[in-house]
Amino acid sequence: MLTVLPVQEAQERILRSLEGFTLPEVWVPTSETLGRVTARPVVSPEMVPAYARSTMDGFAVRAEDTFGASESLPALLHLTGKVPMGQAPPGKLGPAESMEIATGGMLPEGSDSVVMVEYGEILGGQVAVYRPAAPLENVLSAGEDYRPGDKVLPAGHQLRPQDLGILAALGIAELQVFSAPRVTIISTGDEVVPPEASPGPGQIRDVNGLTLSAQVRESGGEPAYRGIVRDDAEELKLDLVHALEEADVVLISGGSSVGTRDVTARVIDDLPGDGVMFHGVSMRPGKPLIYGAGAGKPVFGLSGNPVSAMFGFLLFVKPLLRQFQGLKPFQDYPPYVEALLDTNYSSPGGREDYVRVVLYPGSPGSHGADEVDLPRARPVYGGPGLLNPVVQGDGYFVIPRDSEGLNKGVRVKVFTW
């Protein structure tokens, strides 16, 4: 019988066992850093923008020359030329002078504002301005985004598309980031065959190899799938030893349940190092999870059931991969949607229950006015061996260990996939 740990205690044991460990720093082309984590703070080497420029099509002016302008009494300014795109202005602006300018054009020296084209009209060699302009109106000043020495990004920051944009604007072509965790995945089971094979009687295709690889990649890691190993302790141990030579983390899919033919825990325990640290977590699905270490590297034994393996990864492997990359193990603000449970739902109690749901729009009914706009959450029923509940579902909510279920209409936090 498994001696199970609460989910939070299991998470804490895993993270504590490798506290302070981060992966080496590497230089990577900025174009390839989406989702990677900065190893050092990024400091601006220059001003952005490098010069004052227009944010509108119109006329570069000195704002004071337009004060008091109106449709009945426009300000008349001498038109001295046009600012060519991608080049410096042809000269300076003096009193009562103006220059045509396009969006993004460099402001001529002496000007401090841009009159939108809608509020100006060319009359021969003059511009009639029908509306006064305020100083710096429709202008992006030099250094308004960043100045030399400004901190652009902190260390331990996961890079987003907008971050890559400012790095491009600053001319930063390479960035120091943490290495991506190398995660080796081993599927086990005499009954398991590759996805491209036609299963015979009693056989099933390997789902977890591809699913876990995708989860690793989504978490910023580099997956390496070693294929399928038979339910043989010596064969699994040999494969595991080779995997530990190359990987930062090893995931073994299958063989985590208690039974006469389950060999994963025994093989992990035989490795040099800590061996199995715990076996079993009080959760559904995913209870028979194994965590251990060999050669100082973490090894997870995940259930062969696809949904159990997915939740084992989400709750225990992903936080460790985040920690390895210099991130907080858990997001400060994980994405969730508040919804109303649309049915009574019973739970066995004594373990956290992860309930997969479909979200759909709410409608006026028996709930309070403040809840009319909340979506509804409908549980998708199915065991841990069925993929339909996660394929059709939008996410999941959690029923605590000390609860035996939830009533219809209660608010739940649905964590979206």
How is this structure best described in words?
It is a single chain. This protein is of the alpha/beta class. The protein has 4 domains: 7-24 and 180-324, Molybdenum Cofactor Biosythetic Enzyme, Chain A (3-Layer(aba) Sandwich); 25-48 and 151-178, Molybdopterin biosynthesis moea protein, domain 2, CATH 3.90.105; 53-140, Molybdopterin biosynthesis moeA protein, domain 3 (Beta Complex); 336-416, Beta Barrel (Beta-clip), CATH 2.40.340.10. Helices cover 18% and strands 30% of the residues. It has helices at 7-17, 161-169, 208-218, 233-246, 264-270, 306-324, 388-392; strands at residues 25-29, 42-43, 53-54, 58-61, 75-82, 97-101, 113-116, 120-123, 126-129, 139-140, 151-153, 174-178, 182-188, 192-193, 204-205, 222-229, 249-253, 275-279, 283-284, 290-294, 297-302, 336-341, 345-346, 352-360, 376-379, 395-399, 405-406, 411-416. The strands form 8 sheets. Strands 7-4-6-5-9-8 form a 6-stranded mixed sheet, with no helix packed on it. It has a 6-stranded mixed sheet with strand order 16-13-17-21-20-18, sandwiched between helices. It has a 5-stranded mixed beta barrel with strand order 22-25-24-26-28. A hairpin with a 2-residue loop joins strand 8 and strand 9 (126-129). The two termini are 32 Å apart. The relative contact order is 0.13.
